[in-house]
Amino acid sequence: MISKGQQAWPSVTETPNPDLPVPSLCREPGCCSLAQASCGMVLKVRELSAPAEVAMRLRELGFCEQQRIRLLSKHTNVICQVCNVRLGISRDLAQMIVVEPAAGGRPAHPGPINGSPSAHERDSSAA
């Protein structure tokens, strides 16, 4: 029993195990949540299945529908290359981003994804 003046601690929910499969948000074959995609893949954002305010913030960060992104890492956070900038987002946010493989799928090398040459490619072509 809680006496007057004491606060009850909110119940703590168990954090999900990142090794367990994430429930799919995908309605069609060939698409999945960003949290389910394979590292190294070039993907295209299909839709944002997030509340309006969260979806608006994700769009401000560059996760717009039809945007090409590269999934770099999925450890504690999900790290993506978006518009040639690396962004880290939580696994929960990554689950709200529905993606599909972009044309070309897995890149041959980890260069820019927007078609412009990397600094290394520019330097070697100038020589």
Could you characterize what this model shows?
There is one protein chain. This protein has 127 residues and is of the alpha+beta class. It has a domain at 38-106: Ferrous iron transport protein A (FeoA) (SH3 type barrels). Helices cover 18% and strands 24% of the residues. It has a six-stranded antiparallel sheet with strand order 1-6-2-3-4-5. A hairpin with a 2-residue loop joins strand 4 and strand 5. The protein is globular. The N and C termini lie far apart (78 Å).
What is the strand and helix layout of this fold?
Blueprint: E1 32-33, E2 42-48, H1 52-61, E3 68-74, E4 78-82, E5 85-89, H2 91-95, E6 97-101, H3 119-126
Antiparallel strand pairs: 1-6, 2-3, 2-6, 3-4, 4-5
Question: Could you write a compact summary of the structure shown?
Answer:
The protein is an alpha+beta fold and 127 residues long. It is globular and about 30 Å long. The protein contains three helices and six strands; from the N terminus they run ββαβββαβα.
Query: How much beta, percentage-wise?
Result: 15-25%
Number of helices: 3
Shape: globular
- Structural class label: alpha+beta
Strand order of the largest sheet: 1-6-2-3-4-5
H/E series, N to C?
Answer: EEHEEEHEH
The CATH class of the domain at 38-106 is identified as: Mainly Beta
- Can you give the mean pLDDT? 75
CATH homologous superfamily grouping of the domain at 38-106: Ferrous iron transport protein A (FeoA)
Strand elements, count: 6
